[in-house]
Amino acid sequence: MNKSDLIDAMSASAGITKAAAKLALESFLGNVEGTLQKGGRVSLVGFGSWSVSNRAARDGRNPQTGKTIKIAAKNVVKFKAGAELEGSVNK
């Protein structure tokens, strides 16, 4: 399912226009992104939670040449599925 499919599904299930569904989805994504940028955490009980974790700098290898390269430190987004979501997928 891509963004357009999700907007269509939200519109149909909530009985709202596609424009309203698109606005709601974009608002949700923007708020999640903004919270994560500030180092916060977003948690939806039963569904899951998003958080930011720092990945330290490390040495890696170029698979073509075998040469050692430096991989810079960076922040990564992590998602942990909630119990209800995990349970519904593993029926």
UniProtKB/TrEMBL annotation:
Keywords: DNA condensation, DNA-binding
A Gene Ontology molecular function term of the record: DNA binding
Gene3D superfamilies: IHF-like DNA-binding proteins
InterPro entries per the UniProt record, alphabetical: Hist_DNA-bd (IPR000119), IHF-like_DNA-bd_dom_sf (IPR010992)
A Pfam cross-reference name: Bac_DNA_binding
Family that this chain belongs to: Belongs to the bacterial histone-like protein family.
PANTHER family tied to this protein: DNA-BINDING PROTEIN HU (PTHR33175), DNA-BINDING PROTEIN HU-BETA (PTHR33175:SF3)
Protein name as catalogued: DNA-binding protein HU-beta
